[in-house]
Specification:
Oligomer: heterodimer
CATH superfamily of the domain at 223-327 in chain B: CO dehydrogenase flavoprotein, C-terminal domain
CATH class of the domain at 223-327 in chain B: Alpha Beta
Radius of gyration of chain A: 27 Å
Strand order of the largest sheet of chain A: 8-10-6-17-14-15-16
CATH class of the largest domain in chain A: Alpha Beta
CATH topology of the largest domain in chain A: Aldehyde Oxidoreductase, domain 3
Largest sheet of chain A: 7 strands, mixed
Shape of chain B: globular
Shape of chain A: globular
Distance between the termini of chain A: 60 Å
């Protein structure tokens, strides 16, 4: 037993040996104490001990004995938010909100020195969503929200108070009673066959309830990647597979009374492997005679895309007749999503009046409906007997468009009849989830003397790793919009995505485009240099404009239109802002300045069907209930849904109660991916609100009422009527959104160091429904992309294992690592989106790495063609070019 | 996490007896708890030192004595330490984060273990974790590994910033055991891996660190702690340099140089220091010193994931840090833009 003063209240409670303060505080109901890394690297679990900020995950609980501990739950006094909490709301200083309690408490513990230098003082805390700029604004007391309501107002999210006070629920918060815990045993080998699993020692451990291996679960081939059409991804995965294809693949699950017992039992499983040679080289896997990872994939090809359009038979033919030619290969690395909440879920059973059990799952998923549908097939249960929902999801970025915890907890709960939780550790988030696809991209382009493109060819080698989740989608998407953005008579694409004994790649913000746009936009800059044409001008000469055909490498009909066009405005906005940017004193050293830019086009929604339903019901009290299927993982879609409904119906946003991310809410929703939150789910919400508005107007006319929703609601109630409207969107037709990124950097040619002097992004998001939020999406996207361009890299060693599965060794940018990004909006009205809006969530990421590479190339005098552009690589390239040899 | 015993030490004598009987001391726990979670550290019994009276900082004309339980945050913020030994304060602020420095202690910082990727992964072969198992860092991703003093058994580096400054400042580690108190020079506290990489340092298995002492000379006029890493914040050093000079009549009267991030211990080179005596504080002189330090340097691995670049990085960092020290423009830990 230990005694502490917790949020002003004396608490005596049992602490188990080895318990850290984080789990002790959560056991006392302080759900605002978050788990991000459990290693002292991310700050999500920060609490105050006697007023000083500490990371509770690396503080033994017994060290708090006799001390005063303050958690986020104790910060608001008498139910009133403290000024810092309010400032976080007013500045839009969170998106998913998972880091927010720790961030606020860290700041609350600042001394005067730290308060004067927050960028340094906050190096302890990771925010993956915002890019830190609004957090800095919160510290400076700069508000971004406004008091207006309606379209174009910077309304804070409906969950804002809950986020800053730690009361919103994420997957692992407020668990049901009697909870059991699952842990996974993973393979240390990249390629192996399981010969035998001896479970005797594990079963002998007290508290072990169930062990699941390939001998215990259905043989059900599926893909962890989730799409509307489940056959989009190769069904090459088993729940447990006796054939191991990557280091980190799950081998067994143990369900036990505590996570510690489950972990100990996992370690006690005696597994005999036949270790097989591992194929780690994405080129060599295609060799004739190379071992085949999957029976359905000769030469280890998981997906292929090939096509060409135009008058030329080959790209060589184009290049032969071109005045200016570029032929270069660019390489992009593996990236980790680093959403601060890891994959997690809890399953339990609920018995209905008829005595029948339903399976209920709350998980950190971007796709509750698609998860439910696959579980129904896997478990051979009717869909109606499975409910999947998420409350708030702590970041996703594509990483949670996967089914990787729900199957285990579902199986275990059905076998045991008790609630079961599975929460990934941070290391598992690296080794047992997906990454961005590494790609090698060769770009060949030829232009005439005036800089007009004659031909553009892209050869892509993508590595899907051990499994094919998202392999076809990422490859196709990557080879699509990156090619469409330029008018060019002849286009060629030859892309392949290959299996290897490496961790599976998956969906990642940009969905293939961040890699290919890095290549194409770098090559365009090389063409600008080769032809002596200004890079902005070169874009203007070649970029697609309204009326131009949208052609990538085929001319099959599609449903993408110019709902609005703002690329021209974005170019002018970004260029003018860069011209205005102040250049600071650079100090001593061989510093050189360089400007760089890049453009990006993205379809506003995924192809071939993405569906959303919404329902709006007038309550008796004159407020409105909004049911919408899509999940909220920090992207802010729910905020805009409320704005759309509030504006349409003319009621206060606070009168709207939202239920989202729940298979019980509506008939179907494809999910929160492909930037669909506004343009598809939002459209469904808007249509539902219009339907209710028509209902209300008709009812009011029948009953001689005015327009006051309260009066209409009261009368409807007294007549026993419920007024409601429903809306639906099938995600077609689609439009295009644009982003232009510009940087000015300084590079020290003596050391390879870089400094970002100016960062600007101009975006065409159509009508900006919520400027605070849209700006936040762009600032956050740019920040995440700067990390991916300059410092982040999942490193695979010679044995196929991830060498840096922690935030200590995988470098996510902190506040001090990032510049301010100036965000500018084009003024357009999209004809396909709700009230003129377009999507703006993945796309800000896409032009960042090439714009940075283009700036660095000009400042350094050497061009980085491989990511990340670490200082030592730039330095080595400078040395190589100048002929110096390193010792 | 495995189960283990836990006891609070009521007195130093009790702590020494418990340590001699095999208990593992814990103070801030910021490293040990992490390693226990990773199943890298597997103590049978934890010995909580936090009840001991080792939190004092005494400063006098003859030097300073810092209690082993003084937190890194309190030490860095101590006004007299910052004034007399700014190299130490600067190194402390270059390391970890505010939250960690609030919890981490002086003694614990000395005892922190390597951040070698492979050491921190319980199921890979590692001679430091299980002697004789082999080393997969050799031939692996070696970006953060040693260029000096490595052995065929271990190429890990010591991660501390504080210890680099202590080595440069000729600090002493005060340890107490059954035989009484002894002082270990900071530069001899950590050791090279040789064929016993499981031992990080020379502290006896029955000894407890009680304090760190500093001599009177703090090099407050001419010092710099330059830490180079992959990004501006929260990363361990690729190379760090603690440089200090005493300059009389335009010539170097005394020089101190210790490197971090490059060896199994903070790398002090007194031959290089001696070579600077009597010379003018010029980049040429510093380059000569750097050449002496780095003459035995050897790269691990090749290509972008190897660490060949660190040799030249260290050479330049030494020159730059000494130059900063000489010009009285020590590297700021606040504005990390490197001049």
């Amino acid at each position: 037993m230990i005694s502490i003063v917790l949020n002003g209240r004396a608490v005596t409670a049992p602490a188990t040996p080895g318990q850290c303060l984080r789990t002790f505080l959560r056991a006392q109901g302080c759900n605002g104490v978050k788990r991000g890394c459990d290693a002292g690297d991310c700050g999500a679990c920060t609490v105050l001990v006697d007023g000083a900020a500490v990371q509770s995950c690396v503080m033994p609980a017994f060290r708090a004995e006799g001390h005063a501990v303050t958690t986020i739950e104790g910060l608001a006094e008498g139910g009133e938010l403290c000024p810092l909490q309010q400032q976080f709301i007013d500045s839009g200083a969170f998106q998913c909100g998972y880091c927010t309690p720790g961030m606020i408490l860290t700041i609350a513990g600042f001394d005067a020195v730290q308060a004067a230098d927050p960028a340094r003082a906050l190096k302890s805390n990771i925010c993956r969503c915002t890019g830190y700029a609004p957090i800095a604004d919160a510290l400076d007391g700069i508000a971004r929200c406004d008091d207006r309501v309606g379209i174009g107002a910077s309304t804070p999210p409906p969950a804002a108070c809950g986020v800053v006070s730690g009361t919103v629920r994420y997957a692992m918060d407020a668990p049901p009673d009697g909870l059991l815990h699952a842990r996974l045993r993973r393979s240390p080998h990249a390629s192996a066959r399981i010969l035998h699993i001896d479970r005797a020692a594990a079963l002998a451990i007290d508290g072990v309830r169930l062990i699941l291996t390939h001998e215990d679960v259905p043989h059900f081939p599926y893909s962890t990647g989730r799409h509307e059409n489940f056959r989009d991804d190769p069904e090459d995965t088993l729940i447990f597979d006796p054939l191991i294809r990557f280091a980190g693949q799950r081998v067994a699950a143990v369900i036990a009374d505590t996570a510690a017992i489950a972990e100990a039992a996992c370690a006690a499983l005696d597994i005999t492997y036949e270790v097989l040679p591992a194929l780690l080289d994405p080129t060599a896997v295609q060799d004739e005679g190379a071992p085949q990872l999957h029976a359905h994939a000769p030469r280890n090809v998981a997906a292929r895309v090939q096509g060409q359009v135009g008058p030329h038979a080959t790209i060589d033919e184009v290049l032969a007749g071109a005045a200016h030619v570029v032929d270069r290969t660019y390489t992009t690395q593996r990236l980790h999503h680093a959403s601060l909440e890891t994959h997690a879920g809890i399953a339990w059973l609920e018995r209905d009046a008829a005595g029948e059990d339903s399976l209920v799952i709350r998980s950190s998923t971007q796709v509750p409906f698609l998860t439910r549908d696959t579980l129904a097939r896997m478990l051979q249960m009717p869909r109606e007997r499975i409910r999947v929902f998420c409350d708030r999801v702590g970041g996703g970025f594509g990483g949670k468009q996967e089914l990787i915890v729900e199957d285990i907890i579902a199986l275990a709960t059905l076998r045991l009849g008790r609630p079961v939780a599975l929460e990934y550790t941070r290391e598992e988030a690296f080794t047992g989830a997906s990454t961005r696809h590494p790609m090698q991209i060769r770009v060949r382009m030829g232009a005439d003397a005036q800089g007009r493109l004659l031909g553009l060819a892209m050869d892509v080698l993508a590595e899907t790793g051990a499994y094919g989740n998202h392999a076809p989608g990422v490859l196709h998407h990557g080879c699509n919009e990156s090619m469409i953005v330029y008018n060019c008579p002849s286009k060629f694409v030859d892309g392949v995505s290959v299996y290897a004994n490496t961790p599976p790649s998956g969906a990642f913000r940009g969905y293939g485009l961040s890699q290919t746009i890095f290549a194409v936009e770098s090559a365009m800059d090389e063409l600008a240099i080769a032809s002596g044409i200004d890079p902005w001008r070169l874009r203007e000469i070649n970029m697609i404009r309204p009326g131009d055909p949208m052609i990538s490498h085929h001319d099959t009909p599609h449903d993408v239109t110019f709902g609005s066009y703002g690329l021209d405005q974005c170019l002018v906005l970004a260029r003018d802002a860069l011209d205005r940017a102040q250049t600071p004193e650079l100090g001593d050293g061989d510093w050189h300045l360089g400007d760089g830019m890049a453009i990006a086009l993205i379809d506003t929604a995924p192809p071939r069907g993405h569906y959303a339903h919404a329902a709006v019901t007038l309550r008796e009290d004159g407020g409105v209930d909004l049911d919408v299927g899509t999940a909220e993982f920090g992207n802010g879609s729910v905020t805009t849904h409320v704005q759309l409904v509030a504006t349409t119906l003319g009621i206060e946003p606070t009168r709207i109660r939202v239920r989202h991310g729940d298979t019980e809410a509506v008939a179907h929703d494809t999910g929160a991916y492909g930037s669909a939150g506004i343009v598809i789910a939002g459209l469904a919400c808007h249509r539902a609100a219009l339907a209710l508005k028509a209902e209300m107007e008709a009812f009011a006319a029948d009953h001689q009422l005015g327009t006051d929703p309260g009066a209409i609601a009261a009368r409807a109630a007294s007549r026993g009527r419920t007024l409601s409207g429903s809306g639906y969107s099938d995600g077609s037709p689609r439009s295009v959104a644009f982003n232009v990124q510009a940087f000015r950097v300084a590079v020290n040619r003596d050391s390879g160091e870089w400094r970002i002097v100016a960062s600007i992004q101009a975006a065409d998001a159509g009508v900006v429904l919520n400027p605070m939020q849209c700006r936040g999406q762009i600032e956050g996207g740019v920040a995440q992309a700067i990390g991916g361009a300059l410092m982040e890299e999942v490193r695979i060693d010679g044995a196929g294992r991830i060498a840096n599965p922690s935030f200590r060794s995988y470098h996510v940018p902190r506040m001090a690592d990032l510049p301010r990004t100036e965000v500018l909006f084009a003024d357009t009205y999209d004809t396909t989106g709700p009230l003129g809006a377009k999507s703006m969530s993945e796309s800000p990421f896409n032009p960042v790495a090439p714009a940075l590479a283009n700036a660095i190339a000009r400042a350094a005098g050497v061009r980085p063609r491989s990511l990340p552009m670490r200082a030592d690589r730039i330095w080595a390239a400078i040395r190589e070019q100048s002929g110096e040899m390193s010792r | 996490m495995r189960s283990f015993g836990y006891a609070r030490a009521g007195s130093l004598a009790e702590a020494i007896a418990a340590r001699a009987a095999g208990a593992t001391p814990i103070a801030g726990g910021t490293n040990l708890i992490d390693l226990m979670k990773l199943d890298v550290a597997r103590p049978d019994r934890l010995l909580d030192l936090n009840g001991l009276d080792l939190r004092g900082i005494e400063i006098g004309p003859e030097g300073a004595r810092i209690g082993a339980l003084v937190s890194n945050a309190d030490l860095a913020a101590h006004q007299q330490i910052a004034a007399r030994y700014p190299l130490l304060a600067s190194a402390l602020l270059a390391g970890a984060t505010g939250q960690l420095r609030n919890a981490a202690t002086t003694g614990g910082n000395l005892m922190q273990r390597t951040r070698c990727y492979y050491f921190n992964e319980a199921d890979t072969p590692c001679n430091k974790r299980s002697p004789g198992a082999g080393c997969v860092a050799i031939g692996g991703v070696t970006r953060i590994h040693a260029i000096l003093g490595a052995s065929e058994h271990c190429i890990a580096v010591h991660p501390s910033d504080m210890c680099v400054a202590l080595a440069a400042l000729d600090a002493q580690v005060i340890a107490e055991g059954p035989a009484g108190e002894r002082a270990i020079p900071a530069s001899a506290f950590h050791r090279l891996p040789g064929d016993t990489p499981e031992r990080d340092n020379t502290l006896g298995d029955d000894e407890i660190i009680t304090a760190v002492t500093l001599p009177a000379e703090g090099f407050a006029d001419h010092y710099s702690y330059l830490k180079l890493r992959d990004r501006l914040s929260y990363a361990f050093a690729l190379v760090s340099v603690a440089a200090a000079l005493r300059i009389e009549d335009g010539r170097i009267a005394e020089a101190r140089l210790a490197l971090g991030g490059v060896a199994h211990k903070p790398w002090r080179d007194q031959e290089a220091e001696a070579a600077l005596i009597g010379r003018e504080p010029t980049r040429a002189a510093f380059a000569d010193a750097a050449a002496i330090v780095l003459a035995p340097a050897r790269a691990q691995g090749s290509g972008p994931e190897g660490n060949a670049f660190k040799i030249d990085l260290a050479r330049r960092a030494i020159i730059r840090a000494f130059d900063q020290a000489a010009r009285r423009t020590p590297q700021s830990q606040t504005h990390k833009q490197v001049a």
